[in-house]
Write a structure and sequence with these properties.
- By secondary structure, the protein is α+β, with helices and mostly antiparallel strands.
- A hairpin with a 2-residue loop joins β10 and β11.
- It contains 5 helices and 12 strands.
- The strands form 2 sheets. It has a 6-stranded antiparallel barrel with strand order 1-2-5-4-3-6.
- The longest helix has 11 residues.
- Helix content is about 15%, strand content about 40%.
């Protein structure tokens, strides 16, 4: 489990094809020193298992399913990647609950500089629109961000200078591709409602009667 707070920007040192997958070696000295073989680590938002490490470098193996759902297959030697170590139970939850299970790939459709921030529009597969709400959370390349607005299958996030200085988002351009993970809690709520609330008695009608879904956040 992760929180979407990036701890280091690493650099891909090599990509080696292994069957239908790839072995990715990442130079990230601060992270590598804390990792051991078998640990989970988030690479651009995708949870991977460490299979080898040195004091300055660690390696993971991305299999076919990961390559189908993420941008890891587009990496090359020299690519910058966002790194986050798995959260400890005693850590502060600075972002939001992020599993590192990428839902799909989004595309950057606009990058607009404001006076002290940047607005970025991200297009995403329409099937996930139900998980995107204004001022809700979304993980973009593993970074916990707040949705500023949404329309159809497009969401907008606002980036502060600190985020740009400490993540790979400083390099994004219109047409760039990013890994997206949508809100975990929203997925569970949807499942409960779809199955009639189980034994909890929660239904869509009851939530409406409590004021949820009445447009109060618009």
């Amino acid at each position: 489990m992760f929180t979407g707070i990036i701890t280091e920007v690493g650099s891909v040192s090599s990509i080696v094809r292994i069957g239908g997958g790839i072995r990715i070696s990442v130079e990230a000295p601060s992270s590598a020193k804390e990792l051991k073989v078998g640990d989970s680590v988030s690479v651009n938002g995708a949870c991977q298992t460490v299979i080898a490490r040195t004091d300055a470098l660690f390696s993971v193996e991305a299999v076919e399913e990961t390559l189908r759902k993420t941008t890891l297959g587009r990496l090359h030697a020299g690519s910058k990647v966002n790194i986050e170590l798995a959260v400890r139970m005693s850590d502060r939850l600075g972002g939001h609950l992020v599993q590192g299970h990428v839902d799909g790939v989004g595309d950057i459709t606009r990058v607009e500089r404001q006076t002290s921030s940047w607005l970025v529009d991200v297009g995403f597969p329409p099937a996930f629109a139900r998980y995107v709400v204004p001022v809700g959370s979304v993980a973009v390349d593993g970074i916990s961000l707040t949705v500023a607005s949404t329309e159809g299958n497009r969401l907008t996030v606002s980036l502060i200078p600190h985020t740009l200085a400490n993540t790979t988002l400083a390099e994004i351009r219109t047409g760039s591709h990013v890994n997206l993970e949508f809100d975990l809690i929203g997925k569970y709520v949807e499942k409960l409602l779809r199955e009639g609330g189980g034994t909890s008695g929660i239904t869509a009608e009851k939530l409406m009667s409590w004021g949820y879904g009445s447009g109060g956040h618009e």
